[in-house]
Design goal:
By secondary structure, the chain is an all-alpha fold. It has ten helices and no strands. It has one domain.
C-alpha cells in the first residue's frame, strides 16, 4: 500500500495515535466506511491490529472498537434509508456516493434473498453501503439486517485485526496475505451462494412436482 494514497494517509495517521485518540479515530473511520466513503475497511482494522501489536491499545479493545465501528456505521446507513426512503437519494452527498447503477444492482440482489445478501455484503466493499441503504429503503426487518450483519462482522473484524496483530510490522506481507485472504473468502462465498440458490431452486421444483401415489378407483 502506498503512503501517498488517501487510504495510506489514513493508515499512517491512525497508527500514529495511542489510547483514547486511537480508539476514537478507528471508530470514526469505520463509521465513515459504513457511509460509503471510499476507505477500505480492512485498512482501518489492520491499523487497529498494528496498534495492539505495538501496545498502543489493547488487542481486546481493538476487536471491540472494530466491531462497534462497523456495526454502528452499517446500522446508521440502514436507518437513514428506512426513515427517509428514496428521498435520501436526492441529497447531494448521497447522490454522489450512491450512484443509480450501484443502487439498482443493490436492489436486485436484496430482492432475491435479504438474509443471505445482508450477510455476504460485509465481504463486498463496493456494494456494502448501497445494499444496507437499500435494505432500509425496502424496509427489510431490522432484526434480519442486524443479525446477518453482526454474524458477518464477527467473522471479518477479528480476522483482519488478529492478522495484523500477529504479523506486526510486516506491512507489505500483511497486505499481500490480505489479497489472498479476500480472494479465498470471495470463492467460499460464491460457492455457498451457489449452493444456497441450488437448494432453493431444488426445493421449489420438488414442491411443484406432481404427487405420485395410489389412485383409488371410485365404484
Amino acid at each position: 500500500m502506498e503512503s501517498g494514497t488517501f487510504a495510506g494517509k489514513v493508515f499512517v495517521f491512525v497508527t500514529g495515535l495511542t489510547g483514547f485518540n486511537a480508539y476514537a479515530a478507528i471508530l470514526a473511520v469505520l463509521f465513515a466506511c459504513g457511509l460509503g466513503v471510499p476507505i477500505p475497511e480492512d485498512i482501518t482494522l489492520f491499523a487497529a491490529g498494528l496498534l495492539a501489536y505495538k501496545g498502543q491499545i489493547s488487542l481486546t479493545g481493538a476487536v471491540l472498537v472494530g466491531l462497534a465501528g462497523v456495526l454502528v456505521g452499517d446500522t446508521f446507513i440502514y436507518t437513514i434509508g428506512r426513515i427517509f426512503g428514496r428521498r435520501v437519494l436526492t441529497w447531494p452527498v448521497f447522490r454522489r456516493l450512491f450512484t443509480q447503477t450501484r443502487m439498482e444492482k443493490a436492489e436486485r440482489r436484496i430482492q432475491r434473498n435479504a438474509r443471505i445478501i445482508c450477510f455476504t455484503s460485509r465481504f463486498a466493499p463496493g456494494l456494502r453501503a448501497p445494499i444496507y441503504l437499500t435494505s432500509g429503503i425496502l424496509r427489510i426487518p431490522f432484526s434480519t439486517f442486524f443479525t446477518m450483519d453482526a454474524l458477518a462482522a464477527l467473522i471479518s473484524v477479528p480476522v483482519w485485526v488478529y492478522l495484523a496483530y500477529f504479523l506486526g510490522d510486516k506491512i507489505e506481507q500483511l497486505f499481500e496475505i490480505a489479497k489472498t485472504a479476500k480472494l479465498g473468502i470471495g470463492i467460499i462465498l460464491v460457492v455457498l451462494l451457489a449452493f444456497f440458490i441450488f437448494h432453493k431452486l431444488r426445493k421449489r421444483f420438488l414442491n411443484k412436482a406432481p404427487v405420485r401415489g395410489k389412485i383409488t378407483k371410485v365404484q
